[in-house]
Amino acid sequence: MADTATVDRLAAGDHACLTFSDADERMDLVAAFVRDGLRRGQKVVCWTDSVAPDRLVGELAARSVRPGAALRRGQLVLATIGDPLAGPHRNGAAGMVEVLAGELARAGREGYPGLRVTADMCWATRPSAADELLAFETEVAGLFADGRLCLICQYDRDRFDGVTLAFAAKAHPRAVAAQVYHDHPLLRICRQYSPPGIRVAGELDYRHQDVLEQALAESLRLDRHMHVNLSRLDYIDGSCAGAIVQTALRLPPSRRMTVTCRRLAATVLDLVGAGNVPQLRVQRIHDQP
User: DSSP assignment of 217-238, as one string?
Assistant: First the structure.
């Protein structure tokens, strides 16, 4: 069974599996992985399949990653994995491992201390690709020997069957997941890594105020500027909205909290005094259909 780690704890030499069902949460983790690699001076390669490279640039930028300069200087590479890596002219899994080995060698020649790669594995849902997936995850293990490679393989739970997901969990020494404070079909509260803060989805009321306050307190302790993502929140009551406002009041003038939410949450926050807190900015987004 893979050891579970938060994305900020990954280091050179780690081969990790990220399984996801929430696309936004997945992008938060990918963005944090890219951001941390760039900050450490490593080379970062994103192999994407279900998200086009141009769209991925926008997703990273929306999550406090500035890809422009890194792309121009070659420290960040965004490429479609697709058929060029999985196709027979690349010799399937062996070709993919060869390409990855080449990227690792190139990063060394370019003076980078290590290489971070995140790979969207949705290519393996295509017909006849399952065997190549098994071979790739087995053969790639040899590239971690010198401790310069960090690789996250992304698996969409809605695209892969249970048997494949179980294999992926077994094949990777580490598993990547967000730190979760509360997980229930009606409410999920978890850590958001890029931009740093918390993410709340579902229905939030006084019964879970203590969990909300725990998550806010951790963000208050860890993050210079707090981001409270309520974009997937369907309901919030006055007590929980008040807890958010009270946390913002505890911030010194040099720090700020940004709350991203829909109309209903913005209205409740306004009713409990959000507009009177200089450190708090409420960023309203359009309601989703």
Answer: HHHHHH-SSEEEEEEEEEEE-H
